[in-house]
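Async update (no meeting this week)

Hi team, since we skipped the sync, here's where things stand on the single-chain job. The sequence we agreed to prioritize is pasted below, unchanged from the tracker. I ran it this morning and attached the output directly underneath so nobody has to dig for it. Comments welcome in thread, and please keep replies under the output.
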Amino acid sequence: GSDLRERNARSDVKRCRIGGALPMRPPCGLATAMNERVPEPEVWIARLREIRHACVNGAPDIEADLVREAAHLLQSGPFFGIPTQLVDPAELAAMLACDAAESAVLSLLGPDTVFMLSRGEATHGLATVIVGAGGEESTVEASTLALALLAAYLDGLIMLIERAQAAMGKRSPRTETGGN
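Output:
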């Protein structure tokens, strides 16, 4: 079952990689263990902001690391009902190994996410995203299309979460108590 899929994904990754070393983990202490859970909503949101900032200011060579980190963080967050897709880590790794970062980011977007991409000079990208019905529009420019789309998506998620927290009076999703 899953061992065979994992072996096949590793084999696909090797076939897609055209030389070079394996990608390094993202900067700024963003790396997490694959089984780590981010317990506190404030910490989780702060980490989303860090990744968003790294996407906006990052070079194309850290693109795969940021997509991988965002995917892990989105799938291990403290909130239920976040408009994101669950993506098999092996499939995500295979896409990233084949330089399909745009596809990897698209696989994370929730079904109600609206987006528009535009390519500028060289590889610079501009993305506009609206997360969920009634979400606010976020437009971001970054060094690649994938980084722009990921940053705009994370920005939209952050705005959606903050709006929901404001409507709930900042109640914790775990304790259901109000707070400041």
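Quick observations from my side:
The two ends are 47 Å apart (CA to CA).
Strands lie at 114-119, 125-130, 137-142.
Reply here if anything looks off.
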